Amino acid sequence: MATWKRTRGFWVSIILAFAFFAVVQWLITSGTLNIFYVNTLFFMAINVILAASLHLIIGITGQFSIGHAGFFAVGAYASAIMTMKLQLPFAVGVLVAGVAAMLAGLIIGVPSLRLKGDYLAIATLGFGEIVRIVLLNIDYVGGASGMTVTHMTTWPWVFACLLITIIVIANFTNSTHGRACISIREDEIAADAMGINTTYYKVAAFAIGSFFAGIAGALYAHHFYIIQPSNFGFLKSFDILIFVVLGGLGSLSGATISAVLLTIVSTFLQNYPETRMIIYSLVLIFVMLYRPTGLMGKKELTSLLKWRKTAQGGMNHGSKNTVA
């Protein structure tokens, strides 16, 4: 019974998630959702995966990375090579995309351990640009003209990858490993003094975050038919960074909410790219002025619900005369 009380919220969330999946699947198969809304839904889910993966690196571990589009690109091109060049199944392409991006995360993570703050940001930005320039000059993947990819991304694939990403990152954050990463974010010197292997956890955060960014790249590549190096420039890295900062550094719920909201805004303003960037800038300015910690700060939706229940319970108990 005690185990059920501890895990009740998790299983209720899973049931609601599968109910949402079933409803959306019915709307897609019945044709109620047209291609525009399906594309928006898929792009929204991909952005949530990207935001959650960067949330682990920046929000939880405190490593300021602005080269996440590089891992996104590695996953997209790795999966496209698997399916289009080597004629392997889509499942293999998705897995290889995650592994290739994770290896890229290890490559950038290990040499950059001595760097912090702005210097780490510059190093990761350089990595993202190196990936883009390399892809521009490789004829095997189409160079600047890009690579045509068969449509293989379906709603079950998108939902499964999104659900796994959220579950893994949420459970990692709530585990002892996640607390070690949070201690590094708060004070790396103190964490090292307490015996936490800061090197291991910083590399692990880069590896896990880049793995899921690669998964998002595979879904993206096999949904939009063509991938080009220009799709993965530094502006894409800043878009992902905005999701995390706007939602609140340290809040997975906040990153998810901001990714959904900004994807909707971006989709409906796609014919006005200049206006979109102006709105992005205004939103960030207002958030930094009136909500410096982001929409959710470091809180999660579950913690807010628990706080509300505790507050109601406190009010009920307050009506009784008790002796401490």
From TrEMBL:
It is found in: Cell membrane. Pfam families: BPD_transp_2. The lineage of its organism: Bacteria, Bacillati, Bacillota, Bacilli, Bacillales. The chain crosses the membrane at residues 9-28, 34-57, 64-84, 90-110, 117-135, 155-173, 200-220, 240-265, 277-297. InterPro entries: ABC_transp_permease, LivM-like. This is Branched-chain amino acid ABC transporter permease. It is a multi-pass membrane protein. Its main location: membrane. Keywords: Cell membrane, Membrane, Transmembrane, Transmembrane helix. PANTHER family: HIGH-AFFINITY BRANCHED-CHAIN AMINO ACID TRANSPORT PROTEIN BRAE (PTHR30482:SF10), HIGH-AFFINITY BRANCHED-CHAIN AMINO ACID TRANSPORT SYSTEM PERMEASE (PTHR30482).
